[in-house]
Specification:
The protein has a single domain (12-204, 230-257), classed as NAD(P)-binding Rossmann-like Domain (Rossmann fold). Helices cover 41% and strands 14% of the residues. It is built from seven helices and seven strands; from the N terminus they run βαβαβαβαβαβααβ. Strand 2 (36-41), helix 2 (45-57) and strand 3 form a beta-alpha-beta unit. The chain binds nicotinamide-adenine-dinucleotide.
């Protein structure tokens, strides 16, 4: 990891779905930049606690909180516990997300509802609670120029259609418009809202796309930059977006994708 600059000193950051993958890397990077970090998890208590202990071992402050982001009561309690632990909340990274893939004719209503429930309704519940808490604590004593900042974890599939993954692509397409509309709604009061759109990042969610040599070779054809992304690639972008360095950035999606969204099929003249 690069040398830290304490860019999130005195901030309280809540990262959903941070017991694994991209969320874990973001929680660790934000703690490394001085933030007190709430590690939210849905089921893997052991991994969440291990991360909290690692952060504390490095001199940071962290607690783990179990909550399902698609459940209203859980999300309200998650924010209550964040404020009980650290007194405020400044950065909310709505990272939790899932895939339940199927072709349209085989996709069950449950596959559809579960993915929309976590990936899109989860964004709504977390952002609504974040805005309420940012408003309640006001700008007084805020560690940043903004009153608070929300980062929604989107995907290149907010832009790139994805056959066989209609629930997932629809949820991420929804995240794009959610972020832009909310950013427009709350900008005047000093709240920033942005999204990050990762390309192919090496995490448990897409294991089958990188775990064999053949799969990885096929995947790399889609990535002009020629390598799969690491969770830390996304974490560094999230730290920057959360910090005052990005104070004038709101309502945008930052693609962290090695060029995956650049229509790589057109490299050789289409
Ligand atoms: P991951 O499976 O390691 O992480 C997802 C996390 O969300 C897990 O820790 C999981 O337990 C948690 N989660 C799932 N449902 C939850 C719920 N209801 N409540 C709380 N937590 C819940 O995979 P990842 O790649 O780290 O995914 C993180 C985010 O990045 C997701 O939103 C995903 O869509 C997005 N993303 C990932 C990639 C990639 O290539 N890995 C690409 C684009 C977008």
């Amino acid at each position: 990891m690069p040398a830290y600059a304490n860019r999130l000193e005195n901030h309280v950051a809540l990262v959903t779905g941070s017991s694994s993958g991209i969320g874990l890397a973001i929680a660790e990077a934000m703690a490394g930049e001085g933030a007190s970090v709430v590690v939210n998890y849905r089921s893997d208590e052991q991994a969440a606690n291990a991360l909290v202990e690692r952060i504390k071992g490095n001199g940071g402050r962290s607690v783990a909180v179990k909550a399902d982001v698609s459940e209203e009561e859980d999300v309200i309690r998650l924010f209550d516990e964040t404020i009980a632990a650290f007194g405020r909340v400044d950065v909310v990274v709505s990272n939790a997300g899932i895939q339940k893939d199927a072709a349209i004719a085989e996709m069950t209503l449950q596959d559809w509802n579960t993915v929309i429930g976590v990936n899109l309704t989860g964004q709504f519940l977390c952002a609504r609670e974040a805005v309420r808490r940012f408003r309640a604590q006001g700008r007084e004593g805020a560690p940043a120029r903004s009153k608070g900042t929300i980062i929604a974890m989107s995907s290149v599939h907010e832009l790139i259609p994805w056959a066989g993954h209609i629930n997932y692509a629809s949820s991420k397409g929804g995240v794009r418009m959610f972020v832009q509309s909310l950013a427009q709604e709350v900008a005047a009061e000093g709240i920033r809202v942005n999204a990050i759109a990762p390309g192919a990042i090496k995490t448990p969610i897409n294991k089958e796309a990188w775990e064999t040599e053949d799969a990885l070779e096929a995947l790399l054809k889609l990535i002009p930059y020629g390598r799969i992304g690491e969770p830390q690639d996304v974490a560094r972008a999230a730290v920057w977006l959360a910090s005052d360095e990005a104070d004038y950035v709101t309502g945008t999606t930052l693609f962290v994708d090695g060029g995956m969204s650049l229509y790589p099929e057109f490299r050789d003249n289409g």
